[in-house]
């Protein structure tokens, strides 16, 4: 008979703003009734969690979303004796309001989520991507900010009952060009969303919206593309792959190999060999 997995959890907290994330598996643990001063959004990965909220009982099974407004009491426990695994992101109201104001092009107010459980694969995917980046030491601050903007916009559009109106993303050529120039000038730097906002004279979320509208990708993806091009140039010039990876801004050779293969369809080693034989 297979033994049950033990309870475990890991936690991440941003040092400079109200943003936290938890990844946990609970079999025995039972949450006492409590609330948070933040918005709390979770996705159940495995098993099912049962909880009471707003005077009713709810169950979040694998793939479902949990959405709690600030100061909303709830409890929680495993639905079965096999336990449940889930990812939770806590986002402060000030951060939510600021992000949505940028997306709406002005003061937007705060959303209200009336359904504590939402079945939406798109939202589940967005939350997983954001949560994974928050707990990944190799994820850049820029990438985390971009995923936060995407996830908040998706949550408001798809799950909020009372929601600010978000304007359509319109191209702002000047902002996008300034950001592109900043990335080209220092693509090896650990550029943050605040750096790009300062360069463009706009907010972080306005920068992301304008750049994505014009160039079809997030600034972090564009920066990675520039680093991959530099790695190709260095490898073709005879630099060992491990040295090229570091020189091009990747954390190590495996990091370069993963992205090089994903983008170009061959490994850096195969590219190096083709350069040698050419």
TrEMBL record:
<dbReference type="GO" id="GO:0043565">
    <property type="term" value="F:sequence-specific DNA binding"/>
</dbReference>
<dbReference type="Pfam" id="PF12833">
    <property type="entry name" value="HTH_18"/>
</dbReference>
<keyword id="KW-0804">Transcription</keyword>
<dbReference type="InterPro" id="IPR003313">
    <property type="entry name" value="AraC-bd"/>
</dbReference>
<dbReference type="Pfam" id="PF02311">
    <property type="entry name" value="AraC_binding"/>
</dbReference>
<dbReference type="InterPro" id="IPR037923">
    <property type="entry name" value="HTH-like"/>
</dbReference>
<keyword id="KW-0238">DNA-binding</keyword>
<protein>
    <submittedName>
        <fullName>AraC-like DNA-binding protein</fullName>
    </submittedName>
</protein>
<feature type="domain" description="HTH araC/xylS-type">
    <location>
        <begin position="173"/>
        <end position="274"/>
    </location>
</feature>
<keyword id="KW-0805">Transcription regulation</keyword>
<dbReference type="GO" id="GO:0003700">
    <property type="term" value="F:DNA-binding transcription factor activity"/>
</dbReference>
<dbReference type="InterPro" id="IPR009057">
    <property type="entry name" value="Homeodomain-like_sf"/>
</dbReference>
<dbReference type="InterPro" id="IPR018060">
    <property type="entry name" value="HTH_AraC"/>
</dbReference>
<dbReference type="InterPro" id="IPR050204">
    <property type="entry name" value="AraC_XylS_family_regulators"/>
</dbReference>
């Amino acid at each position: 008979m297979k033994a049950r997995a033990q309870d475990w959890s890991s936690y991440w907290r941003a040092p400079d703003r109200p943003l936290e994330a938890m990844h946990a598996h609970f079999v025995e643990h039972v949450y006492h009734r409590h609330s948070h001063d933040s918005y709390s959004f979770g996705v159940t990965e495995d098993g099912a969690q049962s909880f009471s909220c707003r005077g009713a009982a709810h169950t979040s099974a694998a793939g479902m979303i949990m959405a709690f407004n600030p100061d909303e009491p709830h409890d929680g426990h495993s639905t079965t004796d096999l336990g449940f695994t889930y990812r939770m992101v806590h986002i402060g109201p000030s951060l939510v309001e600021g992000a949505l104001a940028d997306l709406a092009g002005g003061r937007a107010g705060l959303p209200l989520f009336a359904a504590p459980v939402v079945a939406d694969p798109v939202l589940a995917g967005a939350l997983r991507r954001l949560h994974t980046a928050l707990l990944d030491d190799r994820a850049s601050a820029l990438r985390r900010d971009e995923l936060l903007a995407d996830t908040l916009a998706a949550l408001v559009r798809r799950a909020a009952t009372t929601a600010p109106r978000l304007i359509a993303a319109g191209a702002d050529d000047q902002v996008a060009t300034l950001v592109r120039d900043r990335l080209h000038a220092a693509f090896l730097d650990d550029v943050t969303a605040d750096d790009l906002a300062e360069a463009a004279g706009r907010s972080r979320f306005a920068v992301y919206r304008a750049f994505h509208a014009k160039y079809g990708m997030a600034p972090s993806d564009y920066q990675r593309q520039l680093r991959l091009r530099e790695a190709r140039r260095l490898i073709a010039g005879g630099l060992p792959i491990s040295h090229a990876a570091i020189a091009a801004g990747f954390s190590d050779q495996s990091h370069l190999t993963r992205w090089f293969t994903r983008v170009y369809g061959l490994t850096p080693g195969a590219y190096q060999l083709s350069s040698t034989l050419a």
